[in-house]
Each structure stands twice: as structure tokens, then as C-alpha cells.
Amino acid sequence: MIMVPDYIIAFKDKQTESEFDQVKPRLQAFILAAGAFMYFTYGVTLVVTDLMRDAEKSTHVHGYGVDFRTYNLTEKQGDALVDFLKWQFPYYLKPPHLKYSVRDERKVGTSEGRTGAHIHGQVNWREE
Length: 128
Ligand SMILES: [Zn+2]
Description:
- With 128 residues, the protein is an alpha+beta fold.
- The chain is built from 3 helices and 5 strands.
- The chain binds zinc ion.
- Zinc ion binds next to strand 3.
């Protein structure tokens, strides 16, 4: 059981909170870094809205994906979070093939159509 300080990361609900222990350790580190960045830069608590989403073919099902709430962030804060994550968690094509990716889905409609505005992050899928 990893202790997640509630000022660094908040969860949408108890279910999502309970899923944190099931996702990949690499994704847990990604989430904690994102939360720490937002808290220590802006005093904002980042909210995780989705971890193990119940949908086929989703990185979420496998514990490799996370969604962060964005309606409570200013545009500048959202931009900074995306920039920070892309900078600190790059997508390496060469060994050791650490592939992180960040999708800015704050503009509603850019997602699969079933989710609201959010920022999506994930770590290599099916490669461990
Ligand atoms: Zn997502």
C-alpha cells in the first residue's frame, strides 16, 4: 500500500483510489510526479479521475493509463502540466524503450467521445 498524500493527489472516488495499488509502479511514479509538480508549482491538488476504466482495448484496463481532471485548472496550469510530463517522461525509441506518452484532451471531442476534457498519461503498454 503506497501512501499518497491527499494534497498531492486526490481521487475522483473511493473506487479510483483503491485502484492506485493495481496500476504499474512506473505509472504510480508518473502520477506522483505530476501531482507534486502541480502542488509545489501552483498549490493545486491534481485529481485522478480514471485508472482502471472498464473498457476493452484501453490502456486503462491494464493499469498503464491515467486521466487527470482539468476543469479545475487554468489553461496555463494545464499547459504547464503537459509540458512538464512530456519533458520528464519522454518516449524513447532506443533502449531501454521507456515509452511514456501524454495526450492533451482538454478540448472536448478529441477523445473517444465518452470522456470529458482531461489530460491522459500512459506508460509502455504490453511491453513489460
Ligand atoms: Zn485516459
